[in-house]
Amino acid sequence: MTTNKMLNAPAFIRANTRILTPPLVPEIRLHLAEESVPIWQKTEEELGQMNVPPPYWAFAWAGGQALARYILDNPALFTGKRVLDLGAGSGLTAIAAMKAGAARVLAADIDELALEATRINAAENAVSVDTTAQDLLAAPPDAYDVILVGDLFYERQLADAVLTFIEAAAKNGALVLIGDPQRNYFPKGRFALAHSYEVAVTRELEDALIKKTAVWRL
Predict the structure, then answer these.
(1) CATH classification for the domain delimited by 3-217, as one of 3.40.50.150, 3.30.70.2570, 2.60.120.560, 2.60.120.650
(2) Could you give the residue ranges of the DSSP H alpha helices within 54-212?
(3) pLDDT 10s digits, 22-68
(4) Model pTM?
């Protein structure tokens, strides 16, 4: 997807979001949408096409909030480390890792609007995050100290690809941290619980106003 070539992505993001703080991570300010349907419709209108990727980047999902909270509360795991944020979305966990002292964070997302949102949000929080639109799951992982995975187990094919990637990374010595409320294709029994949280969310996105979520280690 080449959305940043088809519309003025920074202007679109700023015009259709507000600067808000996720309930579980008030230290971080993000450009977020308050409702899901309007921004999805506006994205389709601006691009002049249907079936565009859902604007996942416009929301602070429960797993991402939990993972960001864990990162900020455990900075020793990130100080001086090389970090990969898979499926970066808004950039919440990438920003948290930089705030926790990471040497470098690469935010990966195949949606270029998400990457633009990540760059804007990183600047809002006075940190610098590298970005890539490359599908990293299509190849063996590079060397990273820490890999972050937030809310990526919602589709079977994606979940399988993520699991293969992070298991290979863990064999190479990476610390893998997953923020997830055990979505549909979460591989139960494969991860160790690191910390549990209750995250305030919206009914538009989740099935409850308080979502029980956790951070897991591979």
Answers:
(1) 3.40.50.150
(2) 62-73, 92-99, 112-124, 156-171
(3) 999 999 999 999 887 678 778 767 766 555 677 899 999 999 999 99
(4) 0.92
